[in-house]
Design brief:
five-stranded mixed β-sheet; 3 domains; 299 residues; 8 helices; alpha+beta
């Protein structure tokens, strides 16, 4: 395997960065590397990169040393220019993303969502591509008083590619197969929609291998099987995942401050008890916690 540095060392967000490529025959792996840059990078950084999907390698990193973080992407060599653009935008907005993650600065979700909907909704509607807003942003759009950390989109396999094609200048990770620690190997992309100093992270992906269609899976890559409601964003109709998804997920993650807010939202939206029971049956919550959630949404 021949490993080649395409860019670096570069600075951004208190880290030193490198972009490398490894080629084995027709296979190509692009890697973002990042390590604490200290004073040379105006560091130390505000926090670790695992919150942004990065992992530590199991052994010392050839380019970044033993404490290097990395993200890997399996793409054709011809995608090199697009990878470079995404890598550079990632570096330029990293400080802002870390401030939003570890500081007291709220992501500019409302403005970013408005820009995102304006850019993608008309084209996806015209082309018949299904998509929706999920996660905590969906709950916020339905009226929950909470602050999402990012914007999660659900869509189909064609939709994953089309969204990336419609917002290329905002991408911070290139479109393609990659490893998301929370979801395994996916085909997806990430973007930071907004300016270098204000905006919000946007994520969307589908499993590499299709999953059975289940209403309890918010991210199956089968939008028709996800139960949604409709809201208006900038005068355009947008589908959003029902709040039962966010309720169970936040309960599993022990986000106790959000659970009452989401329970109230489920009640006011008119609970879908069939969906909620399906979500609870497939969750990691103990039986007592499941029963408590069911009682909490009783109308």
């Amino acid at each position: 395997m021949a490993s080649e540095m395409l860019s670096g060392p570069d600075l951004g967000g208190g880290y030193l960065h490198q972009l490398t490529i490894d080629r084995t025959g027709e296979a190509t792996t692009f890697t973002y590397h990042a390590q604490d840059g200290g004073q040379d990078a105006n560091g130390p950084p505000l926090g670790p990169l695992n919150a942004l999907g990065f992992v530590h390698p199991t052994e010392g990193c050839q380019f970044g040393g033993p404490r290097c973080w990395h993200r890997r992407f399996l793409l054709p060599f011809a995608e090199t220019p697009k990878v470079r653009l995404a890598y550079n935008r990632f570096r330029f907005v990293l400080e802002t993303m870390l401030t939003q993650t570890y500081g007291n600065v709220r992501p500019g979700v409302d403005a970013a969502l408005g820009e995102l909907v304006r850019r993608i909704a008309p084209t996806l509607r015209a082309e018949g591509v299904e998509w929706y807003v999920g996660g905590s942003t969906a709950a916020r759009l339905l009226g929950a008083k909470l602050e999402p950390g990012d914007i999660d989109l659900g869509t189909s396999r064609p939709g994953v590619d089309r969204v990336a094609q419609l917002i290329p200048e905002y991408l911070i990770e290139p479109l393609g197969p990659t490893d998301w620690p929370s979801r395994g190997i996916v085909r997806g992309a990430r973007a930071f929609v907004g300016t270098f100093r204000d905006g919000a992270r946007v994520e969307w992906a589908v499993p590499i291998e299709p999953t059975p269609p289940r209403g309890a899976d918010e991210w199956s890559g089968r939008p028709a099987h996800v139960r949604t409601l409709e809201v208006s964003v900038g005068g355009m109709a947008v589908r959003v995942a029902r709040p039962e998804y966010a309720l169970v997920r936040n309960a599993e993650r022990k986000r106790s401050e959000r659970v009452p807010v989401l329970s109230e939202l489920v009640r006011t939206s008119g609970p879908d008890l069939h969906l909620l029971r399906e979500l609870l049956d497939s969750s990691s919550l103990p039986a007592a916690a499941r029963e408590a959630l069911l009682r909490s949404v009783a109308v």
